[in-house]
Amino acid sequence: MRSGVRLGVDVGRARVGIARSDSGAILAVPVETVARSAEGDDDIRRILAIADEYDAFEFVVGHPLSLSGAATPSTDDAVAFAGRLAAAAGEQRPVRLVDERMSTVTAQQHLRAAGKKARQQRPIVDQAAAVIILQHALDAERASGAAPGRVLTPDEGSPSL
Question: According to the UniProt entry, what is the EC number of this protein (predicted)?
């Protein structure tokens, strides 16, 4: 198991949920919800600043596929965002795409079970989904001994993936 802090990223159309692991790569915790930038790279710059703040060595970005494993418009959007993040982060901080099927639904169920109403969930559901994505990746790496998902190169951010 590789040690060091990782950032989990749940890409949504309006918001990006951010989670982080501890340096021992055991536990994922929520950090922040970043608003998506309609124009410019304010969202990417904020995520890079969070990575600097926690000295994260890689990003784990959710790869939203349909239940059958097929790509969807959300898949294309997340991959394009991850490509922008990879281009901005450079080779020092790899961006890994990991399967995130059902992470948002699971996050909503957990928040509902904790007594949060739908309106209360909106600002934090993306963070909760990022925690689920990152925790799954940490657990998978611990079980297999191999880093999860695949590293995205900066030029792979096109929707044709």
Answer: 3.1.-.-
Write the CA distances from 3 to 8, 21, 60, 89, 126, integer angstroms: 15, 10, 14, 19, 25
Q: Which of 79, 133, 82 is nearest to 106 (CA)?
A: 133
CA 5 vs CA 30, 59, 63, 73, 97: distances in Å: 13, 9, 20, 30, 16
Measured at the CA of 90, the angle between CA 84 and CA 92, to 5 degrees, comes to 140
In tens digits, the chain (161 residues) has pLDDT values of: 899 999 999 999 999 999 999 999 999 999 999 999 989 999 999 999 999 999 999 999 999 887 777 888 888 999 999 999 999 998 889 999 998 865 565 656 665 676 766 666 566 788 988 999 999 999 999 999 999 999 997 776 544 33
- 78: nearest Cα among 157, 147, 143: 157
